[in-house]
Amino acid sequence: MTATTALSAPSAPTHPAAGRSPAPAARRRAALHWIAVHTVAIAAALFFILPFVFVFLTSVMSDDQALSGDLWPTEWNWSNYADVFNTPGFLDWWRNSLMYAGLGTLFTVCSSIPVAYALAKFRFRGRRTAMIMVISTMMLPPQVIVIPMYLVWAQQLHLSGSLWPLIIPMAFGDAYSIFLLRQFLLTIPREYLESAKVDGSGELGTLLRIVVPMAKPGIAAVALFQFFYCWNDYFGPQIYAAQNPGAWTLSYGLESFKSAHSVNWNLTMAATLLVMAPVIIIFFFAQKAFVEGVTLTGVKG
Amino acid sequence: MATLTNAPALRRKARRERLRTLGFLSPWLVGFTVFFGYPLIATVYFSFMHYNQIEAPTFVGLRNWRYVLEQMPLFGPALWNTLWLVVVMVALRVVFGLGIGLLVTRIKSGAGFFRTAFYLPYLAPPVAATVAFVFLLNPGTGPVNDILGNIGIHAPNWFNDPAWAKPSLVLLSLWGIGDLMVIFMAALLDVPKEQYEAAELDGAGAFHKFRYVTWPSITPIVMFAVVTGVVQTMQYYTQALVAGKLASGVSIGPGSVIQPGYPDHSTLTVPQLVYSLGFQNFNTGAACVLSLVLFAIAMAVTTLLMRKRAGLLSAED
C-alpha cells in the first residue's frame, strides 16, 4: 500500500489533467472489483455457514418436522437439548472427552517442550536424523502400528476398555507438537539464551525461565491443537474404548447416539452441535494462537 | 582448538553436553522406541504369522502376503478408493483452498467475518461434521435436496449412491478447508508487493501477474499442501466410516459387524480395511500385511517430502 502511493504520487503534479481524467474510470473499476469480490465472498460464506444454520434449525424442531425436510422450525423445542443431556451415558462421554483431551494436552505439552528445545537449540551429532525421524512419525498413519500396540495394552497390561492406552503415550512426546514447537523455538534469538547462561543459568533454568515464557504463543498453539486432536479423535477411542460404553468419548459416542435414536434427527443435530460447541467457543477466545500455529507449520518452514 | 592445554576438561565438557542432550530428548527417545519402533517390528513379525488373538501365533511364511495381495476380494476396491480420494480430494482441496486464500486477501470490507466463516468448519470434529452432512444431504429428510428440488435441480442421492458417495466425501472435505486457507493466505501476503508493481509497469494482466509473480513464490507452500494432503488422505478413515454406517441406516450396536464401505464398498478405504481385518475378523496377520502396505506408501511420500521440501529442516540445520 505505502509503496503504491509512493510510486504514483510524483507523477500527479507533472500531468495534472491526465491524473484527473482516469480517476472516475479507475474508481468505477475499483467499485466493480469490490462488488465482484464481495459477491463471491458472500456466496462462499453461505457454503461454509449454511450447514451450521441448518443443523441448528433442525436441532430445535419437533421429531416429525425434522423428518420433513422443512427449513424453518414451526415451534422451537429447546427441550431437545435437555433430552440429549438426559440420554443415558451422554454426561459420561463429556467427562471422558474432557479427561482424554485435558490430560492428553497436559502430558503432550510437558513432554514435548524439552525435546523441541533440544532439537531447536542444541548442536549435536544426529540432530538432522532425529528431525527426520520426528517428521516421519508425524506422517505415519495411526493404523500402521495400532495392532501390536492394541495387543500389548489389551493382553499384557489389561487396560483396554479405558482411555489410558491413548493418554499414557502422550507423556512421551508427540511428533506433531515437537515439530511445531521446534519451528517456534527457532525464532527465539540465541543471544537471549547465551546471556542467560552468562548470568549463570543452567540449561533447565534457561528453558523454564527464558524459553517457556517467550514461547507462550507457540505453547498455546500446541496445547490447542492437541486438545482438539483428542476431542475430535474417533479412531483411538474406537480401538480401546469400544467394548466399554462407560469409557466412550463424545466423538465416538455421537455416531452410536444416532444409531440408537434412529429416527430422531433433531436430537442428533442437537447432540452434534453440543460436540462442536467447546471447539468453537475455545476458538473464539484463542483465534490468534490458532492461526499462528497453522501458519507456523505450513509457512515458516 | 586449544586441545593441547586441557584436553580432559574439554572431553568432560563434551560428555556432559551429550548427557544433557540425551536428557532433554529422553521423553521422545522412549516414546519413539516403545510406541513406534516396537510396534513396527511386531507388525512385520505378525505379518508372517497366523494369529487370531486367542491361540498362539503360528508361522505361515508368505501366506498372509499372498492372500492380501492376490486373493482378498476387498483389497482392490479399498486401494482404488484410497487412491481415488488421494488424487481427487487433494487436487480439489488445493485448488479450492488457493481460491479461498486468494479471495480472502482481496476482501476489503468485513475481512475478519469472512475469514472466521471460512475457517470455522475446519474445527468441527470430523464425526460431528460427517453426521451433519449425512443429514443435510439425506435424499429423503435433508434440506439440501429439498432446496435443489424447489429450484428445479434433480439432486443425486449423495451418500446413498455408489457413484456419488466419494464426491459427497470430497464436498465434506472442501467444507473443512480452513487450514489450507490460512497457510495460503499467509503465503500470498508474503509475496513482495514491488514485484506486482513491476509486473504492472510491464503491462501484465491479472492472469500474467498470477502466473509469473504469485505462482513462483507460493510453489513451495502448494507443494507442502499437496504432500501433507496426500499423507492425510491415505489415513482417511473416520468420515468414510461414519458416513457409510449412518447412510446405510443400519442400527449399529457395539460388537455388531457390518461390511464397511456402504454403498457397494464405494467408501471403503485401506485404513478401514485394516481395522475390519484386525478388530472385526481377528485376522491379525492379514491386517499387519495391509498396514505394512500402507506404511510403504506413506514412507515413499514422506521421502518425497524430504527431498522436495528440504525447507522443513530449515535454517539452522
Automatic annotation (TrEMBL), chain A:
Classification via InterPro entries: MetI-like (IPR000515), MetI-like_sf (IPR035906)
Top-level division of the source organism's lineage: Bacteria
GO CC annotation terms, alphabetical: plasma membrane
Transmembrane segment boundaries: 30-57, 98-120, 132-151, 163-185, 206-229, 265-286
Record-level GO BP terms: transmembrane transport
SUPFAM superfamilies, alphabetized: MetI-like (SSF161098)
Similarity comment: family membership: Belongs to the binding-protein-dependent transport system permease family.
Protein name as it appears in the record: Carbohydrate ABC transporter permease
Organism: Streptomyces antimycoticus
UniProtKB/TrEMBL annotation, chain B:
Signal sequence range: none
An annotated GO BP: transmembrane transport
Alphabetical keyword list: Cell membrane, Membrane, Transmembrane, Transmembrane helix, Transport
Keyword Transmembrane: yes
Topology of this chain in the membrane: Multi-pass membrane protein
Cross-referenced Pfam families: BPD_transp_1
Domain ABC transmembrane type-1: 79-305
Localisation per UniProt entry: Cell membrane
Residue spans crossing the bilayer: 21-41, 82-105, 117-137, 169-191, 212-231, 284-306
PANTHER family: ABC TRANSPORTER PERMEASE PROTEIN, ABC TRANSPORTER PERMEASE PROTEIN YESP-RELATED
Family: Belongs to the binding-protein-dependent transport system permease family.
UniProt-recorded name of the protein: Sugar ABC transporter permease
